[in-house]
Design brief:
With 166 residues, this protein is of the alpha+beta class.
Length: 166
């Protein structure tokens, strides 16, 4: 479980000394930042919307103008930006991934065909996305949402958000 902390930390400290969620960071003169980790429960082959959580983190960061970096720190899941209106479109996205990278027995890299396929999907789709923050808000298009993409089996997962700017 992730512990909550709002202690300030100085830029340059090792990761081991940075408190978990949320940690306010001092980056450069005049800049601010906040690092947050969140846990979610996923289901195999699913997209889970995390837009509202990311918006809340941006609002709490105090950053008025900057960047929000959203990351899935794992090799078999990722972060996607797509329409939140079209739920069937989410199924199409995952179906396309499965058609392009099916679980198969001849992967060289692992004994688990689902894990090997998931790693290929995450490597190509990406595990991190950057979003613009302006006027203290996450700037997305009218129908854009941020999604955690689970390419492997359902499990407890972590995603991170780093907001920095002025």
């Amino acid at each position: 479980m992730v512990s909550l902390s709002s202690e300030a930390v100085e830029f340059g400290q090792s990761r081991e000394t940075i408190p978990f969620v949320p940690a306010k960071l001092r980056l450069f003169k005049g800049e601010m930042g906040m690092y947050t980790e969140k846990m979610i429960q996923t289901q195999k082959g699913s997209l889970l919307e995390i837009t509202e959580s990311v918006k809340q983190i941006v609002a709490e960061s105090g950053v008025k103008h900057g960047v929000a970096v959203v990351s899935a720190p794992t090799v078999d899941a990722g972060i996607l930006c797509t329409s939140f209106y079209d739920k069937k479109g989410h199924e199409d996205i995952m179906d396309d991934f499965n058609r392009i990278w099916p679980a198969r027995l001849d992967y060289a890299g692992t004994d688990d065909p689902w894990q090997a396929a998931a790693q290929s999907k995450a490597a190509v789709a990406g595990q991190t996305m950057d979003f613009i923050v302006a006027d203290g808000e996450l700037k997305l298009g009218d129908s854009q949402g941020i999604f955690f993409a689970e390419y492997c089996g359902g499990q407890q997962r972590r995603y991170t958000v780093m907001v920095f700017g002025v």
